[in-house]
Design a protein that fits this description.
This protein has 165 residues and is an all-alpha fold. It contains 7 helices and no strands. 76% of the residues lie in helices and 0% in strands. The longest helix has 26 residues. The chain starts with a helix and ends in a 13-residue tail after the last helix.
């Protein structure tokens, strides 16, 4: 089931990138920034939540929800507002495919902390297949995002006017 969700998520991300003409490079870097933000301030924000009054299962879901909001908010904002001026179709396609995969991967890692969902998240064949290569995939997606960001946001050379004497 998780592999089917990955396919749907990747197709949805590619569709959003191409229909809205947004920059997948900016969104990928925003996702990586969201992951870093979660690592930096996730425990601090969760420490301020009034957890403990409900059942233990709902506490885990609240923590996962907060972590998902921290991780994916920069990506959603980037997908909404980061328009691209010049698009390289192949580079945008590759960047948006890696963005969709990274969204699935980091979402699955976050959901894996819930005991009741751990059984379903561990059964993903995609995660088992690429498990040894996840650092390489993150590196390649960051490089693709940077190249897409640079190629899509080049400004036109300014034409200087000749001075009249």
């Amino acid at each position: 089931m998780a592999d089917l969700i990955a396919l749907v998520l990747v197709i949805a991300v590619v569709a959003v990138v191409f229909l809205r003409k947004t920059s997948p490079g900016v969104a990928t870097l925003a996702l990586l920034a969201g992951v870093s933000l979660n690592q930096l301030i996730g425990k601090w924000i969760i420490g301020y939540l009034p957890i403990g009054s409900q059942t233990a299962g709902s506490d885990e879901l609240v923590v996962v929800f907060v972590r998902m909001v921290i991780i994916f908010t920069p990506t959603v904002v980037a997908l909404i507002f980061a328009k691209v001026h010049k698009r390289n179709t192949v580079l945008s396609l590759l960047s948006s495919l890696t963005l969709g995969f990274l969204m699935f991967y980091f979402g699955l890692k976050t959901l894996g902390s819930v005991d009741t969902l751990m059984v379903h998240t561990k059964n993903s064949g995609l995660v088992h297949f690429i498990g040894p290569y996840h650092n390489l995939i993150i590196l390649i997606s960051a490089i693709l995002a940077t190249v897409d960001l640079i190629s899509g946001h080049k400004s036109k050379p300014s034409i200087s006017k000749k001075k009249k004497h």
